[in-house]
Design a protein that fits this description.
Keywords: Membrane, Transmembrane, Transmembrane helix. This protein is mainly α. About 80% of the residues lie in helices and about 0% in strands. The chain is flat, with a radius of gyration of 22 Å.
């Protein structure tokens, strides 16, 4: 865990020191690395027999959690919008 934190802090330090440099190509490299990581994750998950056998259950649980998160976010965003942008003179 300390190695991961150290690598992250090292990257932040290098980014801070080179902040005036223009790295227009870095976005493409990051995208390529993310695709590679997703591909390797897919290989790892596909090779795990327990995950593949329980995929139906995991799918239902993931759908329920996603639905709850989206609905909760929408309701709270609407409530915040209502509190911040209600018409002047109206009582909540």
């Amino acid at each position: 865990m300390f190695i991961v934190i150290g690598v992250m802090l090292g990257g932040m330090l290098i980014g801070f020191l080179l902040r005036r440099q223009e790295f227009s190509w870095i976005g493409k490299v990051i995208t390529l690395l993310i695709w590679a990581l997703l591909f390797l994750l897919g290989i790892e998950v596909g090779g795990n027999r327990r995950i593949v056998e329980g995929l139906a259950t995991l799918g239902v649980e993931a759908f329920v959690i996603t639905l709850a998160c989206v609905l909760g976010s929408c309701i709270l965003a609407w409530g915040l919008w209502y509190l911040l942008y209600k018409k002047k003179g109206e009582k909540a």
